[in-house]
Amino acid sequence: MSDKLKQFLDDAASEPIHLTVRDLLDKWDFKIRNFTTVPRVAADLARAGLKCEPAFDDVSMTTSVCVSSKTLAVDEEQIEDSVELLFPQAALLIKDIPSANHEVMSIPPDATLAQAHAVMMDHGYSQLPVITNDGRLVGTVSWERIGHIRVGSPTAELSTVIDRDPNVVKLNDDLLKKIPMIYDAGFALVREQSDEICGIVTTADLTEQFRLLAEPFFLVGEIEKRLRRCIGRAFSVEDLQCVGGRITSVNSMTFGQYVRFLRMPGIWPQLHWHIDCTLFTERLDQVRMVRNEIMHFRPNPLTPAQRDRLRNFTSWMHSLDPQR
Fold it and tell me: Residue 210: pLDDT band by 50, 70, 90 thresholds?
């Protein structure tokens, strides 16, 4: 155990120490978390009677954690403050794919091929980067490459099947320009500004990200189409004028005007819907707010709660307007 590490453990036993996960690993001279470094850090902390909150292997490298000899309440505000604020961009970048900046599982070059097999099977990975404990990229190993090499060499070891020239992109690279390369290879590793590998982007990640970006637009469009048909069947253009503004047809109404119109006295009974007006219009107003967010085409996906609002309200509209 180095003097630096021993001093850190002694200091933490006396008084709680707050530091980032990256700085914590540095006490062991580690740059990354993998199946050899994480157990070593955890074991040393446990032997010293120390706890790390939140768990250092369950948060980002820039998250602030507290190492102490007793359980402390997690400071949620502090964790939130460690998250970098991202502003909307004109183009989608590699870093807009969540997995690009989410530490990737790796193996060290002295691991066995059996260990590589186990890690890939355990996590359902098709490929795995090979990275030294000080953060240097050696290459990648994949099921495809293992299969090709073992056709001619059934007893090949890990060092033989490593692809030492894998595709690597940077966080600020234009995503659209890199898509052909990622699809051709099946994946690309991602470097941050310090040149350390900070994530991976696979074809599955691209497919999921574009689904997350596109789905809300289609759901909002379907909600509005069905709502317009329902209102158009029950009311004339003259009826719609009560919400104010220049309305020439139901198609010229905004989501805010839909909400105000349906809340007008005497309007709801004419739809003959056996649904509570207050709850329906509250949910419609929530759809309006989500709609306003996605119209900015922000790269960050909606939250699960926002997606559920859109999906649930779309189901409501399917029941009220069964027409395709």
Answer: confident
Co-location of 120 and 172 in the same domain: yes
The region that residue 51 occupies, defined by phi over 0 for left and psi between -120 and 50 for alpha, beta otherwise, is beta
Q: Mind listing the pLDDT tens digit for each residue in 116-150?
A: 999 999 988 998 999 998 889 999 999 988 988 88
Residue 117 falls inside a structural domain: yes
Gap between the Cα atoms of 37 and 132, Å rounded: 10
Establish if 201 belongs to a structural domain: no
Question: Is residue 176 domain-shared with residue 115, that is, in the same domain?
Answer: yes
The closest alpha carbon to 286, from 307, 271, 268, 301, belongs to: 307
Domain membership of residue 12 (yes or no) is: yes
